[in-house]
């Protein structure tokens, strides 16, 4: 190096540091409030948004949004992602703009929340993960294999202790799955006792209610009672009306909830954007058939008298739902026989038994459960009810999905396309509500409801969870028959200031982690 060059460098001094870590320019900003889009820039430093609007300064990285929409990262308030550490990138969520997921729904969760969060940190997840503590999991741990009864004082103390510790470890609330064993056997007083524990920590009570059929009004009465007596914020999970006998009552359901809210109760609800649900195929069986261990079920169907009682109860369930057979159910994942994946129950019966008659459908359901069970998609709702629920301003959008591997099984398309479907079908095509309002339902509304501090808004001080998308190109190509397609139209996804998707390509950045309530 020459003396002249060295002297010049000394005079220049050290290079000036950039003002920001990241600067997003030329964006149409949907800030999460539901207000009109505003042209401007977003500056990020230290994982937080530090300036919004007309921003001046240099940045280590610049993203030119090119007139696309920049919104807060979407918050999926209802997922089943207990296996997130096995699929830590969760690209199916990222690709539809989701930067935060809430797991532990429908009464099923990890009961050691502290340990779960440690594993999340170790696995280097790409998005934020919050969890509820699941009542069913707590009940199973607290009561062993005997469920058709109330817990004794010692067992209830064990259960309350588990909920209390989970809340201390950062759970956002308590969830119930009251159509699933063992939660289905719980009485309301038990739920109130545990909801009070969550409420003492400022947690929420989130319920897959006892009925989503024509008996839904009984279930609504129960959640209103729990919210009242436990003095707890409440959430109706995946609000729906299942089965033809329940269809057409969406307005009445919302009227009940609005009446409760008018009395001061803080009750909201979430919804996915499809007319089919997905859960275990065992939901076609009566609860009493599933009590105890798996061996108990096998023993029951091996006993002709007990098996006949189970089949008779299945007939009652079909009648109540207005069903003639099981053609509405399609197998999503059968570990014992993957050849059945994607097949309806009549089709599975034809494959397994050579006949698709009702008796053969019943037999194949019993066989599958005896061999370890299966998950299934249930086509049980109608579009008119779905749209009535969706139009309500307190309906937040949630997938009820989980992390997916491309090409594995035949899962519900909601895990790939739920948020994109809102923006593409219900905003752009049907014009049911505005784009900013749709963004509010997916961002600030769940952030406020679940007390996720400094999330769900684009404003100075908020965590830099941001998604950039083209509203004219957002699409959900995933279908029931061909689900493994990522959502389209989302070009950038930023989690805690880290760009995890850039120019529609996944990066190596893994800036997510556990998300604790109010922290």
Description:
The structure is a single chain. The chain is α/β, with parallel strands linked by helices and 519 residues long. It has two domains: 73-279 and 379-450, Metal-dependent hydrolases (TIM Barrel); 286-377, no CATH class. 35% of the residues lie in helices and 20% in strands. It has helices at residues 3-12, 91-94, 113-123, 135-143, 153-168, 188-200, 216-230, 250-262, 287-290, 294-302, 304-321, 345-353, 358-370, 383-391, 414-429, 435-442, 444-449; strands at residues 20-29, 38-45, 48-53, 59-64, 69-72, 74-76, 98-103, 128-131, 133-134, 173-177, 204-208, 233-236, 267-271, 276-280, 329-333, 375-379, 395-397, 466-469, 490-495, 498-502, 505-506, 513-514. Helix 8 (250-262) links the parallel strand 12 and strand 13 (267-271).
For the structure shown, list the relevant keywords.
nine-stranded mixed β-sheet, 519 residues, 2 domains, six-stranded parallel β-sheet, TIM Barrel, alpha/beta, 17 helices, single chain, disordered N terminus
Contiguous low-pLDDT stretches (5 residues minimum) are 1-15
The average pLDDT score comes to 95
Beta-strand residue fraction: 15-25%
Q: Name the helicity range.
A: 25-40%
- The total beta strand count reads 22
Structural classification:
alpha/beta
Instruction: Name the shape in a single word.
Output: globular
CATH homologous superfamily caption of the largest domain: Metal-dependent hydrolases
In CATH, the topology of the largest domain is named: TIM Barrel
User: Main beta sheet, described?
Assistant: 9 strands, mixed
**Structural domain tally:** 2
CATH class of the largest domain: Alpha Beta
Number of helices: 17
- Under the CATH scheme, the architecture of the largest domain is Alpha-Beta Barrel
